Amino acid sequence: MELRDYNGTGRWAREAVVERYREYCRGLRVQPRELRPLEHEEGGVLRIYPILEKVIEGAEQGDVGCIALGVELLEEDQRLPFGKLLKSNMARALRRAELDPYQRLRIRIRVVQMLLAGNVPREFKQYAKLLRRIGFGEVWDEIERGVPRENRYAMRWYRYLSECRKAAGKEAPGSYPGKTPPG
């Protein structure tokens, strides 16, 4: 039987993700859920889909261990199988999650670093919506000073975030009405 495992390697391998999840749950003193990737067998081929799909489901349901892994995933630069889709879906799940102040700060730092570097891939749309949701906090001045004004893609997201900030009355956290992300 042929095996096709669509999980990452190293720290994003299936076993490593499950172990870190259990560590988070122990540290947070919550009961861990069972994280098992979807498996599908057909025509002599066993496909094992990314365990991160189950982590995303957990984050959507408010599992604090999955939320902690989700923040870690957004900070990751390593290429992963289905990485763009997984990161985009995780950012969407984290918009609905209850994040602690440190997690919000980590997300702000990550999104700002990407914007200032001009690194705005397709999944940045979900990152910008997440930043809009959690508020800009102390990072707006850094965005204002450092956005690469010669990068039209970064400037597109800068204008979007600037409009969201204005519509929200500068620093008000939470949902920003009426603004649709570009692209």
Topology at a glance:
Layout: E1 2-5, H1 14-28, E2 39-42, E3 45-48, H2 52-60, H3 64-75, H4 83-96, H5 101-116, H6 124-134, H7 140-146, H8 152-167
Parallel strand pairs: 1-3
Antiparallel strand pairs: 2-3
Helix pairs in contact: 1-3, 2-3, 2-4, 3-4, 3-5, 4-6, 5-6
Architecture overview:
There is one protein chain. This protein has eight helices and three strands. The protein is mostly helical.
Spell out the key features of this protein.
8 helices; 183 residues; 55% helix
Oligomeric assembly: single chain
In whole angstroms, how far apart are the ends?
42 Å
Taking all Cα atoms into account, the compactness measure Rg is 18 Å
Q: What are the low-pLDDT stretches, counting only 5+ consecutive residues below 50?
A: 171-177
Proportion of strand residues: 5-15%
Summarize it.
With 183 residues, the protein is mainly α. It has helices at 14-28, 52-60, 64-75, 83-96, 101-116, 124-134, 140-146, 152-167, and strands at residues 2-5, 39-42, 45-48.
